[in-house]
Amino acid sequence: MLAAAALLVGCTSSAEPDPAVPSVTHATPSMAAGPAPAPPAAPAPAAPACGDPAAVVAAMSTRDKLAQRLMVGVTGAADARSVSENHRVGGVMVGSWSDLSMLTDGSLAGIATDATPLPLAVSVDEEGGRVSRLAGLIGAQPSPRQLAATSTPEQVRQIAFERGRKMRDMGITIDFAPVVDITDAPDGSVIGDRSFGADPAQVTDYAGAYAAGLRQAGLLPVLKHFPGHGNGDGDTHTGGVVTPPLADLQAHDLIPYRTLTTQAPVGVMVGHLEVPGLTGSEPASLSPP
């Protein structure tokens, strides 16, 4: 529930994370074989600023509970203020179409803080590489495939932490990253170089490191695209896509999720993917429980 995410990332202190998070110099063990040792701990957050989470949600009207499940794309500060004040949605998304001045002048952060019944969650698609909405503000980052080829998981964690801290300073609370799809498809294909690789263990290690860095910076990382777009037969931006059968996904594409979904807090983005043996003709994003 988006309200839970808003409580998680919006009701704690907005103080900047301690920049002195120590670097780990020893080799990083594989997370694919089981949970890795905990990364350096970030400072404990201040007490929630908006009360007991369960009580806050319980006090909402049914309409507000439904609205809190919505996250909508906005064009700029005026649009964000309008959807917050008039519709009381749970969050807004900064997209390629958005006026980024609302991030640099502090207006979006103020709108998010003043929102009711909960602070707004503010999200962005910032993977690095060719999916980078904020490159002009926080700098460019090599693609995940390049990172896996040139960096250690610890270096990737540090990169994500530094970029995440810049995003958090601008009011971003959720990053729709990292990609945990597994593929060796060409760089420019729908997933391609957005993936950390074709090996489930490698993707688990690098995506897990990236998610850890974002968490340490105060952002909620979101794993995508569940249950696995890397070996789908097309591009979900342009049409229906069918994945390999469920048994194949369980033996390959779903492996990273078994580890990374245990490392809370973390979100999961469901893809518009038809899964033979599971969803029938409906995509996973519309599949009933």
Automatic annotation (TrEMBL):
One of its GO terms (molecular function) is beta-N-acetylhexosaminidase activity. GO terms for biological process: carbohydrate metabolic process; peptidoglycan turnover. Keywords: Glycosidase, Hydrolase. Its EC number is 3.2.1.52. Residues 36-46 have a biased composition (Pro residues). Coiled coil: none annotated. InterPro entries: GH (IPR017853), Glyco_hydro_3_N (IPR001764), Glyco_hydro_3_N_sf (IPR036962), NagZ_Beta-hexosaminidase (IPR050226). Residues 16-48 are annotated as: Disordered. The keyword Transferase does not apply. Residues 62-288 form the Glycoside hydrolase family 3 N-terminal domain. It catalyses: Hydrolysis of terminal non-reducing N-acetyl-D-hexosamine residues in N-acetyl-beta-D-hexosaminides. PANTHER family: BETA-HEXOSAMINIDASE, BETA-HEXOSAMINIDASE-RELATED. Belongs to the glycosyl hydrolase 3 family. This is beta-N-acetylhexosaminidase.
